[in-house]
Amino acid sequence: MIHSQGLRYRYPGGSELHFPDVQVPQGAVLLLSGPSGSGKSTWLAMVAALVAPAAGTLHVAGQDVTALRGAAADAWRAGAIGFLPQKLHLSEALTVQQNLAMAQWAAGQAEDTARIHSALAALGVAELVKRLPSQLSGGQAQRVALARAVLLKPQVLLADEPTASLDDESAAQAVSLLLSTAAQQGATLVIATHDARVAALVPPTSDGQIGFQRLSLSREQLSKA
Ligand code: ADP
Ligand code: MG
Asked: What pTM was computed for the model?
């Protein structure tokens, strides 16, 4: 779940961003759209407790994240949040297996090879376990990064521009993988994107299915001084 009220963020020396309130139940999907610069990545960073809001309340997976700082924020994030960043941040010197093991170490857990293999297998990339990131195609690297993001069964999965620079078919596949992976784990999913194609790939809110929400940010709304 993600609940926010009166959320604001201020960049040093920059303008203050004001965000609309959200009520996203556990297991629901939020499509966070809006043009480049409208604050999507900033919102994700607040939800992940990577940065602290200037004002407002924010509860994520039952935690008041505005109360978290430093090591406490890091420990909470490692267990509660799965992040699929725009740049995948796979370590080039480590194999696929070692990249996933890093997520377990970061959460204070011992390396669990069986769990790593099953996470990769669920995304159809188990055979890539010994490869280096430089030996993966773009689509394979994204699947590996998604496997890493959901390895610890996070309650909330955040994807930042997951379809950037993908052709139509790969974009559809990426969104479908995100939806199915989140649904399988019961995770709340946020897809942040300026890609207009994604709206058609996420079930509409009006077709009777519960659990799908859309929130559109605009630069005008956010660039309040
Ligand atoms: P989006 O992800 O929707 O493209 P961002 O969250 O990256 O938007 O940025 C939102 C706004 O904050 C933009 O107007 C951007 O110029 C501003 N911004 C982003 N990063 C910084 C920064 N480090 N310092 C000052 N302003 C920033
Ligand atoms: Mg962004």
From this structure: 0.94
